[in-house]
Structure to design on (283 residues):
């Protein structure tokens, strides 16, 4: 018995969705077929890979095998893309928040466009809640979103989770009077960070005021650099010239959870774009 890509695809789907049901929807197979593939894989490896309980999780051996499975499956996909994927054509509609665009878009566009020259990639940047609303209306084939709760979007694949920090110029808070409202730089409603910040401050009975508002990540960071107020953002996206604020009076914010939602239809171009995005984000 040897490893095959179908088995690896099923294992990766279970590992990433933490659900046999969601994995079955993702790969287009029945739940029992997914279970059989995992059992076959565990028999081949001679180690338990999945902890089956109220919530699925990987065993220590499963975590180790996950790294190998990703590498093997990625080489398989890359080889197919290299020789067969140029035949793909059409238009793909991809939506994501503006701050994510600056982090992943250039690399994904270069790789994807090089392998799929006949596919037109239509990209739009929007706030997460607007992306979800438009995705439900059929405006996008694929969206990358952020939420305050893990698995808040049932059909989404959880990509990664990250701490959200207070960010700003430290000198702005040097002479801060706790009785005065905290100046905030936020995006307008609907915004996941905005809800996170305001809910957290209200829960701790802290006064705040909206000092500046813009839907643009670049404009908000400019306002924070100018000392108009403080904001909140996930740790990996904090600009080098701004401080991560850890003052005692600032409460801990909820983590951000990043998910990928894909239109459920058989489309090789959509599947290939999903592969490129996950490859970029999970490395």
């Amino acid at each position: 018995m040897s490893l095959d890509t179908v088995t690896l695809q099923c294992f990766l789907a279970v590992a990433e969705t933490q659900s046999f049901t969601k994995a079955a929807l993702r790969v287009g197979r029945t739940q029992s077929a997914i279970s059989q593939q995992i059992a076959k894989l565990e028999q081949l490896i001679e180690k338990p890979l999945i902890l089956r309980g109220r919530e699925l999780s990987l065993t220590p051996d499963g975590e180790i095998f996950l790294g190998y499975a990703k590498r093997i499956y990625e080489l398989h996909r890359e080889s197919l893309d290299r020789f067969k994927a140029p035949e793909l054509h059409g238009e793909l509609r991809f939506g994501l928040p503006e701050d994510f665009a600056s982090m992943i878009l250039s690399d994904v566009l270069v790789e994807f466009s090089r392998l799929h020259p006949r596919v037109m990639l239509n990209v739009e940047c929007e706030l997460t809640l607007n992306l979800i609303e438009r995705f439900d209306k059929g405006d996008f084939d694929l969206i990358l979103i952020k939420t305050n709760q893990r698995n808040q979007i049932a059909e989404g694949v959880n990509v990664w989770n990250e701490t959200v920090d207070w960010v700003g110029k430290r000198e702005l808070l040097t002479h801060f009077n706790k009785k005065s409202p905290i100046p905030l730089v936020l995006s307008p409603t609907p915004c996941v960070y905005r809800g996170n910040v305001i809910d957290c401050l209200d829960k701790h009975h802290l006064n705040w005021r909206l000092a500046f508002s813009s839907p643009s990540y670049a404009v908000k960071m400019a306002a924070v650099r100018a000392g108009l107020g403080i904001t909140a953002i996930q740790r990996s996206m904090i600009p080098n010239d701004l401080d991560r604020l850890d003052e005692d009076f600032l409460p801990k914010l909820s983590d951000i959870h990043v998910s990928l939602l894909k239109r459920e239809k058989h489309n090789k171009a959509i599947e290939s774009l999903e592969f490129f995005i996950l490859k970029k984000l999970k490395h």
Notes: Residues 60-83 form the longest helix (24 residues). The mean pLDDT is 84. The chain has three domains: 5-82, 91-154+260-282, 161-257. The radius of gyration is 21 Å.
